[in-house]
Amino acid sequence: MTPAVRRRVFLVAAAAAGALLLWGLTGLPDYGVYNGPYGDVLNRVAVAERSATNVVAAVTFDYRGVDTMGEEYILFAAVLGVAILLRAQRDEHEEPPDEDAADRDAPATSNAVRIVGLTLVGPVVLFGLYLVAHGHLTPGGGFQGGVVLATAALLVYLSGEYVTLRRVSPELVTDVAESVGAASYVAIGLLGVAAGTAFLANVLPLGQPGQLLSAGTILPINAAVGLEVAGGFVLLLSEFLEQTLVIRRPGEVT
Amino acid sequence: MLKFLPYMVAAWLLLVGLYGIVTSRNLVHAITCLSVAQSSTYILLLSVGFERGGTAPVFLDVPVGTRAVDPVVGALTLTDVVVGATVSALLLALAVQAQKHQGTLDPERFGKERD
């Protein structure tokens, strides 16, 4: 199928799909008018039931905890997939790829980038930990905090060398962090079974709403997710960086 | 018109993202287009749960009972964003492989450059 034919086929299909979408979307309640009962019910009962002031976190890690476990394993599987895809390739190509621009060196990292990057690492780590630890109180949580923590590793790479990144986040540490994070979620879920209720039931003491130590299992689940996301994203980062570096500087990093 | 504007934006993003994928001549571009198409779901979910005058469903500074938007769609959007990011990572890894095996990122030229 030539690109022109394909474009025409798509435009016909898109017109039909667009008309269907329009038909469906105009049947939705007007924007700004909320009819569904669930959001209102949860907003009314979640703080009293779960001691979590962030109702989104209460939904994600408690009421919908099993779904979020599936989501966490999607993340786990995707990171695993990337690692496997990019690893097999390294073994296939033993010979160093051609240097595309042997006469041009990559520019050295400027001191400005180095200083700003390294200055930001500490605050970014602190902010990431804050987001993970306060997920049940304020907007944030394990997913957001984990990504912010992984950004700290990116800053180390930006302000230094790939080898520095490797030194501060060895593969073993990121692998273990990701796996332990993923496994802890299930372990916290099994606490409910051990207590004689359902899997992922919130069986830990709930505490007072607004306190750091409150909301039962939501806080430890956030910590587990934060660990897994941070480990997973650093792993993704290193895998992709390793690809470019293997091509750019053969033999230096293997 | 304003009553439907966010829904129209969602429909537009979905279609324009799909158009980008269909006409793409570069896999990285196609993956970005998929992200564009997927971002339509964020807008759709959040628009469905939005309530005029509603605050964020976080009751640390405001008392319970304050009008707030739907927390369920917020949680669903969180899932959506995470899955979107990981799918992009996986697809980009496949694009790296495609470049290595085919010598090009243009799907039209796959199988024509070298074996």
Task: Supply the number of helical segments of chain A.
Answer: 9
Radius of gyration of chain A: 24 Å
Estimate the mean pLDDT confidence of chain B.
Answer: 87
Q: How far apart are the first and last residues' alpha carbons of chain B, in Å?
A: 54 Å
Percent strand of chain B equals under 5%
Please describe the biggest sheet of chain B, giving its number of strands, its sense, and whether it closes into a barrel. Answer: none
In the predicted model, the low-confidence regions of chain A spanning at least 5 consecutive residues are: 247-254
The dominant shape of chain B is elongated
- SSE order of chain A in H/E notation? HHHHHHHHH
Question: Structural class of chain A, please?
Answer: mainly alpha
Most extensive chain contact? Answer: A-B, 61 and 53 residues
Summarize the structure.
The complex is a heterodimer of chains A (254) and B (115). Chain A is an all-alpha fold and 254 residues long.
Could you please describe the fold and organization of this structure?
- The complex is a heterodimer of chains A (254) and B (115).
- Chain A contains nine helices and no strands.
- Chain A has 254 residues and is an all-alpha fold.
- Chain A has helices at residues 3-26, 37-50, 55-63, 65-92, 111-133, 142-159, 162-168, 171-194, 218-248.
- Chain A is 70% helix and 0% strand.
- In chain A, helix 5 (111-133) runs antiparallel to helix 6 (142-159), helix 6 (142-159) packs parallel to helix 9 and helix 8 (171-194) packs antiparallel against helix 9.
- With 115 residues, chain B is mainly α.
- Helices cover 64% and strands 0% of the residues of chain B.
- Chain B has three helices and no strands.
- Chain B has helices at residues 5-23, 27-49, 71-102.
- In chain B, helix 1 (5-23) runs antiparallel to helix 2 (27-49) and helix 2 packs antiparallel against helix 3.
- The longest helix of chain B is centred in the C-terminal third of the chain and has 32 residues, at 71-102.
- Chain B is elongated and about 65 Å long.
- The interface between A and B is large, with 61 and 53 residues.
